[in-house]
Amino acid sequence: MRQSFVKNISRVLLCGIMLAGPIGCSDFLDEEDPSNLTPESFYTIPDHAEAALASVYADLRFMGGGAGIFSANWQLLEALTGTSTTETAQNSDLNNLLALVQDGNTAHVVNYWNGLYRVIANANQVLEKVPPIEPMNAAQKARILGEARFLRASAYFTAVRLWGDVPLITTPQTATTEQFSPGRNPIASIYALIVEDLIAAEAAGLAWMDLSGRVNQAAVKTQLAKVYLTMAGFPLNRGASHYKLAADKAFEVITYANANPSSINLFTNYDDVHSERTENRIEHLFMLQYNEVVAGNPMGNFLPNFQPTTFQGPGGTGSSVPTRSFYNSYEVGDLRAKNQDGYFYTSYFTNGSGAPFQLGGPYVFKHFNRIAFGTSGVPGTRQNNLNVPQIRYAETLLIFAEAQNELGAPTQAAYDAMKRIRDRATLVTPALGTFSQASFREAVWRERWKELCYEQITYFDMLRLRRVYNETTNGFNNFVGHINLSTNQPLQQKHLLLPLPTQELLNNPNLKPQNPGFE
User: Fold this and answer.
1) How many other C-beta atoms lie within 10 A of the C-beta of residue 493?
2) Which of 47, 308, 388, 461 is at a distance of 20 to 30 A from 418, taking alpha carbons?
3) Can you give the three-state secondary structure of 238-294, one letter per residue?
4) Contact yes or no for 127/145 (Cβ under 8 A)
């Protein structure tokens, strides 16, 4: 805008000078600036379509944006679970989330709303402006549109779970368009679009895996299975029909993986879950892409506070740590809780590669980049290019196990899927015949809590199940009344939704009413 404004001012000044001479300036006033891009002038060649899609991918990184001192946006989805707490307690918005007293001004809430709708807006641009581009390879066009529909569906999937009824916008908007100040659409209509988008993405000719990090078939099918699983539970309660849809869709990925184990599989060790060398492959079906040249990995708030675990020495960046109660709830012998072998660490090496020292408690290791930060005797590269996982094959297996069990009883296939997760953790799984439908259901839920922790997934499980893992009893409590041991605060009915951002309600009264409990 500023560059365009300066150019226009310069043109006016030039016309003023020219008026003193024999030549008028009407031609200058009428001329369009060829460098002032608009959607109409930009979407003209295939490269423009690729660039526009790349901007949608870049928008996904809003989850790593800052939310004040010692906090990042992604902590919204961790603080509410009760499985993490803060080591610094210096961010009032994060403290409010942990204490379950968030409101429409909480930075993380506002930033998530804005970030998701930015993804949606730019995806809408791609979906409207790319189809008319000619000449353009048909397969390339179909792929771009399929990827854009996956990204839009994923943004709406997050939004509808966080806020319930939200505006459903499917075309580009300006100040003069009808939906510039939209109202909220029912949850069912949001899910209808999500399913429609994902089915379209599934038919877009995408490769099963994509080492460049683009959307792929395995990611689309797993996301669709997750959507069906969510629709089967709260708040839509579609039940058996959607449990079957979820099981069948997840099983498509499992079938392909079984036939192509070198393409899709579980990693043989947990180090590969957070290694630059294994990004976008094998277990990682979809990841947010990070590179220091553009944007470095944003999970630094999981680093210990004032502890010399990296080449930087003691750092004051950490603010999210696992609660002792959750860490202690792992079964004896569970490799996921073993220091530096699993998802936690209780000791490391001074400045990343020096003498070992004790951290004084457990910290999250799942996003720790040994290549960047260093490991025993090996200094780090100092470039944290680690991607952030969004969909792992481990989740595909657990979606199938849960959904298949809900169709009547645990089958051998459902049991095998769940057992694979436990086998990697070096845990003994009771025989299939010892499980009832109810006991298998909770066994799968426990594996979801233990396997997918600190990947911004657990809170959504709490919402769709209306149940929360109890670290003390190893069972599950009703959502309402469960006490988050991170701050000993009980979850209330209002916590099933987030408050709408206050400024959005002020700017657009059509969004009212505010979600219950936050009026």
Assistant:
1) 11
2) 388
3) CCHHHHHHHHHHHHHHHHHHHHCCCCECCCCCHHHHHCHHHCCCECEEEEECCECCC
4) yes
Give the list of residues 6+ apart from residue 336 with CB closer than 8 angstroms, or none: 270, 330, 342, 343, 344, 425, 450, 451
CB 353 within 8 A of CB 382: no
Residues 368-391 pLDDT 10s: 999 999 999 999 999 999 999 999
- 38: how many CB neighbours lie within 10 A of its CB? 8
Entry field: residues in the chain: 519
Token pair in block for residue 482: 């469960």
Report the relative pairing of strands 374-375 and 378-379 from DSSP bridges. Answer: antiparallel
Helix (H/G/I), strand (E/B), else coil: 378: strand
Summarize the confidence of residues 51-66 as an average pLDDT: 97
Structure tokens at 306: 């004032």
Residues contacting residue 275 through CB under 8 Å, at least 6 positions apart: 369, 370, 371, 386
Per-residue confidence (pLDDT) for residue 417, from 0 to 100: 98
Q: What are phi and psi of 32, to 5 degrees?
A: -90, 140
Distance from C-alpha of 186 to C-alpha of 2, rounded to nearest angstrom = 39
Query: How far apart, in whole angstroms, are the C-alpha atoms of residue 219 and residue 263?
Result: 13
Question: Which amino acid, one-letter code, is at 55?
Answer: S
**Helical spans, DSSP H, in 24-98:** 26-30, 39-42, 46-59, 76-79, 92-98
Q: Is 468 helix (H, G, I), strand (E, B) or coil?
A: strand
Q: What confidence score (pLDDT) does residue 37 get?
A: 63
Write the CB contacts of 187 (distance below 8 Å, at least 6 apart in sequence): 160, 164, 165, 235, 236
pLDDT at 179: 78
Would you say residue 2 has pLDDT above 70?
no
Residue 517 to residues 97, 478, 489, Cα–Cα distance (Å): 15, 19, 16
Helix segments in 99-214, DSSP class H: 107-129, 138-163, 187-202
**More confident of the two residues 2 and 414:** 414
3-state secondary structure of 163: helix
Bridge partner list, 143: none
- Give the residue carrying structure tokens 């457990």: 362
Say whether pLDDT at 8 is over 60.
Answer: no
Q: What does the pLDDT read at residue 13?
A: 32
Mean of all residue pLDDT scores within the chain: 93
Task: Give 315-351 pLDDT, tens digit per residue.
Answer: 877 899 999 999 999 999 999 999 999 999 999 999 9
**pLDDT number for residue 35:** 52
Once rounded to an integer, what is the mean pLDDT over residues 255-274?
A: 98
Assigned token pair, 256: 């392909």
Do residues 388 and 423 touch, judged by C-beta distance below 8 A?
A: no
**Tokens 């969510």, located at residue:** 230
How far is the first Cα of the chain from the last one, in angstroms, to the nearest whole number? Answer: 37
Checking if the pLDDT of 5 tops 50, the result is no
